Amino acid sequence: MVVENAPKTSASEDQAKTEANTKPKEDDDEPEEGEIVGDQDSASSKPSKGIAPQSHALEHSWTFWFDSPAAKPAKSKQEDWGSSIRPIYTFTTVEEFWSIYNNVRHPSKLIVGTDFHCFKYKIEPKWEDPVCANGGNWTVPYPRGKSDTFWLYTLLAMIGEQFDHGDEICGAVVNVRKSQEKIALWTKNATNEAAQVSIGKQWKGFLDYNETIGFIFHEDAMRLGRGAKNKYIA
Questions:
Q1: What is the pLDDT along the chain (234 residues), one digit of tens a residue?
Q2: Residue 75 neighbours by CB under 8 Å, 6+ apart
Q3: For residue 126, what is the DSSP state?
Q4: Is the CB of residue 77 less than 8 Å from the CB of residue 133?
Q5: Residues 98, 33, 148: CA angle, nearest 5 degrees
Q6: 43 in any annotated domain
Q7: What is the pLDDT of residue 9?
Q8: How far apart are CA 83 and CA 112, in angstroms?
Q9: Is the Cβ–Cβ distance between 115 and 175 less than 8 Å?
Q10: What CATH code is carried by the domain that includes residue 137?
Q11: Are 154 and 207 in contact (CB under 8 A)?
Q12: What is the DSSP letter of 171?
């Protein structure tokens, strides 16, 4: 069930925190890597008398999805892939984004096996989703515990509509594994080579990433698994 784009109740926020391995911030906690440091009360502080609270709407609504190892079957089959993914929060404004981002654990703090997604509203982070079915993804790997800042940069580039072919973007996922963390950027039309290569090159620029990255078609990934080969490079 997708979370509606309506004002969130405290119960909804509590559920989001629980399912995303959140940890309430203590006053004496050290800031996590990639976390915005400063006056975090400014967005929620009371406005001056007579001034209405101001919010900044995003061009698209976005949903965070969470996939925990604890929710996955012991022996997951290929056809069961994605069955444990759950939507936890849909945001429509800049302020809502920072509210959830600052109150969930970042990739370096998530347990091994976790997948944390951010996709456009009503697009499920599954190969079988009608919007994603003919698409593919770019992937950037990072050593374990080193992807926090780059995950944030990816989110800001997506929700801030910084890509020239932003209509091609479905969403992004960070996969937390034992030896590394991988950030993947999902797109709609894998056969549109010009758009995909443009997205890959721009993404590398946003991340200041200098290594070669590859683009894999979802169709190949479903059919060949780890044997799927890069169709494009950037």
A1: 333 343 343 333 444 343 434 333 444 444 443 333 444 343 333 433 444 468 999 999 999 999 987 755 554 444 455 568 999 999 999 999 999 999 999 999 999 999 999 999 999 999 999 999 999 999 999 999 999 999 999 999 999 999 999 999 999 999 999 999 999 999 999 999 999 999 999 999 999 999 999 999 999 999 998 899 999 999
A2: none
A3: S
A4: no
A5: 75
A6: no
A7: 38
A8: 18
A9: yes
A10: 3.30.760.10
A11: yes
A12: E
Judge if pTM exceeds 0.85.
no
**Token pair belonging to 9:** 């109740």
Is 132 inside any structural domain? yes
For residues 65 and 87, the answer to whether their CB atoms sit within 8 Å is yes
- Whether 9 maps to a domain, the answer reads no
- Counting Cβ atoms within 10 Å, is residue 113 exposed (0-12), middle (13-18) or buried (19+)? middle
Spatial distance between the Cα atoms of 52 and 29, rounded to a whole number of angstroms:
32
Nearest one of 153, 117, 147 to 132, comparing CA atoms:
117
Q: How far is CA 163 from the centre of its chain?
A: 16
Inside any domain, residue 117? yes
- Which 3 state secondary structure label does DSSP give 150? helix
Residue ranges making up the domain that contains 137: 57-233
Number of domains in the chain: 1
